[in-house]
Amino acid sequence: MKLNAYGRSGLTVSQLGLGAGQIGDAALDEAHVAKLLNTALDLGITLIDTARGYGLSEERIGRHLAHRRSEFVLSTKVGYGIDGYADWTGAVIHAGIDAALMRLQTDVIDIVHLHSCSLDVLRAGEVVEALMRARDAGKIRVAAYAGENDPLGWALAHGGFGGVECSVSLFDQRTLQHWLPAAVERGQGVIAKRALGNAPWRHAERPTGQYVEAYWDRMQVLAYDTTGLPWDEFALRFSAWQPEVSAAITGTTSVENLRRNVDAVNRGPLPDEVVAQLRARFAEVGSQWQGEL
Ligand SMILES: NC(=O)c1ccc[n+]([C@@H]2O[C@H](COP(=O)([O-])OP(=O)(O)OC[C@H]3O[C@@H](n4cnc5c(N)ncnc54)[C@H](OP(=O)(O)O)[C@@H]3O)[C@@H](O)[C@H]2O)c1
Questions:
Q1: pLDDT band at 246 (very low <50, low <70, confident <90, very high)
Q2: CATH number belonging to domain 3-286
């Protein structure tokens, strides 16, 4: 698995990371989660992304991977969900980081994102200052922002954030068009989330009310030609190999899909002319589409 610098942070991340949202599901068998997490590291993945809000995800990463902590870069997200603290205050940032350190069974978290807070919250300054203080205190290595559109642009321009996490896929190229070139110039790391666009091709009918619905609609309009490749390979080789991206993350509960995704990224970028066509097609029909959280 190719390794990339995560901006100028000094961290190195594998080009494909594991999005650990799905493994927070309490219905999943514990032994299966242990196998999935350990297989990810065995396959050369060195980035795992979680969040306070992903159910059992943080505590499962701690439980099953604490003994392999030196093998991966750990990313989480804070800002809400701690009993006794109001969401999106300085106090909940500190409490959230302390809680994450405990749940993840680690002394330091490599990347901590503000989890998609609004522009107003960012501008008020309190949570941003709290995150920077936690970094200066050595509890976290990189202060980062996860989100889209105007708040993402604000965070990138602020100068204090060492990295961002945002949607990058065949179906969501707004960040590539608007924000990421400047991020790279500033030396900020970029994690591309929803790199498969939640795999909308799996749905024969419109998945009304599901997370993937907006991407399914876009897929119909974009009408890409996958050049004979399977959809998952086509999608991941696009997202992971964009020059602005330090690492792309995919979420899965399936060891088989995890292996397929690693193999796909290892096959390298799509041909330059195909990438140029995919970017031009999105610019043609999707330039008004907002980034999807
Ligand atoms: N606001 C935020 O900060 C935010 C928002 C969204 C996501 N994230 C992060 O980004 C990660 C990835 O996002 P995501 O999970 O929403 O999007 P994604 O990776 O684009 O899509 C995940 C979906 O694709 C399926 N999948 C995975 N590999 C596949 C393959 N080879 N073929 C077909 N289907 C496949 C998975 O199902 P199976 O389980 O069946 O494989 C899962 O339903 C999350 O886990 C989380 O860490 C952050």
A1: very high
A2: 3.20.20.100
Domain layout of the chain by residue ranges: 3-286
Structure tokens, 170:
């065949």
Using one digit for the tens of pLDDT, what is the confidence trace for 105-122? 999 999 999 999 999 999
Distance from residue 201's CA to the centre of ligand 1 (Å):
13
Q: Which residues line the pocket of ligand 1, CB cutoff 6 A?
A: 19-22, 49, 77, 115-116, 146, 165, 193-199, 232, 249-254, 257, 260-261, 293
